[in-house]
Amino acid sequence: MDSFVTNGLSFIVFKNMEKIEVKKGERYGRLIILSEEEKIKKARIFRCLCDCGKETTVRLNSLRQGRTRSCGCLRSELIKERMEEEGNPMWKGDEVGYGALHLWVTEKYPKKEVCECCGKVDPCDLANKGIYNRELKNWEWLCRKCHMVKDGRLKRFAVEKTITKRDSLGRIVSSIRKTN
To answer: Which of 4, 84, 114, 132 is the most interior residue, by most CB within 10 Å?
Structure first.
């Protein structure tokens, strides 16, 4: 081993460095070594199989130093876990918007085969039971008709016609609403 200094930086040069032996099937985090690939800029590259089933290529030094432990799936899982925790500064609990709360509930509450109200039709709507929060007991899967009945929208669907009378200048003289 020799050392030298250039521009105030010190370097160590290893001579006759031993080649690290890596065996097929060796595990590093979630990765299992499949084969050694062609070197890239003197770096040893290995093809690995991740526990999730995806293949990836990784530098040996990244594997040995623990910088690469998966194909990327571990990072995705950790980020997702952190985003759902109350320690997250962006976590709003139940004080989120309508759309965000519906997305969160649809991830946690699997879609049912039949409507929870009539039991006949495939459900297509996630409906709350009057309280908007993250408690899954306050949500149900309903067919469109049952959802509209519970929300009161079916009553509001009565067709309204407005008959408007105008004078010769186009101004509205009278307006009458008829409900069918």
So the answer is: 132
Q: How far apart are CA 16 and CA 1, in angstroms?
A: 9
Amino acid in position 73: C
For 116-164, write each residue's pLDDT tens digit: 888 887 767 888 887 777 788 888 888 888 888 888 777 665 555 666 7
| pTM listed for this prediction | 0.41
Range of the domain at 167: 95-180
CA-to-CA distance for 35 and 91, rounded, in angstroms? 43
Cα–Cα distance between 54 and 86 in angstroms, integer? 31
* Residues 165 and 172: beta-carbon distance below 8 Å: yes
User: What is the arrangement of strands in the sheet containing 27-28, beginning at the earlier edge strand?
Assistant: 27-28, 31-36, 45-50, 55-59
